[in-house]
Amino acid sequence: MTLPVMQVRGVSKRFPGVLALDRIDFELLAGEVHVLFGENGAGKSTLTQILAGAYRPTQGDISFRGQQVDLHGVHHARSLGISAVFQEFSLVPTLDVEENLFLGAEATLHGFIDKAELHRRADAILKELGFPLRPRQRVYDLSRAEQQMVEIAKAFCTDLSVLILDEPTASLTDREAERLFAMVERAKRRGVGIVYITHRMSEIRRIGDRVTVLRDGKRVATVAVAEADDERLLQLMTGRVISQIFPKIAHQPAKPLLEITSLTTADRAVRNVSLAVRAGEVVGLAGLVGCGKSEVGRACFGIERMASGRIVLDGQDVTGTTARKMLDRGAFYLPPDRREEGLVMMRGVRENVSLPWLGSGAFSRFGFIDRSGERTKVRQLALQLNLPSSKIEADLERFSGGNQQKVLLAKGLASNVKLFILDEPTVGVDVGTRVAIYEFIRDLCESGVAILLISSDLAEILHLTNRTYVMYRGELRAQLEGGQITQDRVLADFFERARA
Known about the structure:
The protein starts with a strand and ends with a helix. A hairpin with a 2-residue loop joins strand 4 (59-64) and strand 5. The strands form 6 sheets. A 6-stranded mixed sheet has the order 6-9-10-3-11-12, with helices on both faces. A 6-stranded mixed sheet has the order 18-21-22-15-23-24, with helices on both faces. Helix 14 (401-413) packs parallel to helix 15. The radius of gyration is 24 Å and the shape is globular. Mean pLDDT is 86; it is low at 496-500. It has 2 domains: 4-241, Rossmann fold (3-Layer(aba) Sandwich); 256-499, P-loop containing nucleotide triphosphate hydrolases (Rossmann fold, 3-Layer(aba) Sandwich). It contains 17 helices and 24 strands. The chain is of the alpha/beta class.
């Protein structure tokens, strides 16, 4: 019988006014991928922070290789071979990649840092992972996806016994994710125990061995991946069956709201793309991460430079228009990275929701901000999206990822928007929040709003869209409508050509 490499018994964690974990039992075997599954706020991140030494439990015991341990910090955990990759990066932006990889564990020669050895090791680990990074690139020059790669590589630089991965593929392309999965498989074969947090069912099936489901800080069940289908996992996590996840949408297409003709971006990530979105319908723009679909949405909204083409919004030519003018004309773009592009994290709900519209009549009077009207409007939106209206002044850092996403959506509801461009609107959120977002899409569509849904989630495309365009490597490969939007038809251009 395989012995647990790490085990917790009766672990609870209490923060002021909140019981985040309630008497959790959990074990991780050597050579397994143990998935933690649950909604935002279920306790997954808190548990992994305890396993990684970042938090100390309020009560309960932790054992490592059969011996009870008191982890008194991340450095202590790393010295035992316990490494974690969290959603919030722990990189030093002013240092380069190789310095970040071995920070605190540098190779030395005669009492000095051995930079040649540092470079050799960094180059070797990056090549093994297949990440397109140079060891001497400065971290502040890297994209978020590239910084994610540095965090992952950093975890693989130690003599691993336990690896903790918290939504590690959120910023990676499918090709980069496959490289990560290959490294996970190799780590498993070496006897490393891996704790893996994801909301993606496909990843659970791809690399998981067992799944522990958490709900409201409690362990609901631990099941073998081979014995648990999607519907059972969803029921354990939320109490809902899978048929309740996607609402039925009564599409009633009317006049064209968005017309794109022969769009080519300046960097040629998109080439000769034409599509249309009508009022009262959800139009999908599908494809793998990195296929160019996000660039289409960003070019429409004025935040991606165009080389050629034409964009028309509600009958008006808006080619080359700025994002500010697109907002004023009734378009709203929801970016895939809420923290970097969508929200001001050190500010509250009220300020975030009203920020794009302070110059409009909704939040101002006679050139001054109407604070009373602002609070009233934001409270109404908070109630509409099931946000805690009593906390509209609290910094967004204190909110779960799902509630942060709802705040981003609330920004679009604060004014008269007629076109929503939703770019991966459910990335990194739990199923409960997904349901709320899907209902939000249904209600907007049925009220006559036009929605362009940019998604790499096949289920969203199949269940929510009235028409769908499929992209591959910057070009449109298919346009499907109604009954044509089937798994087989979409996959023919979504995946198979990508693998060829």
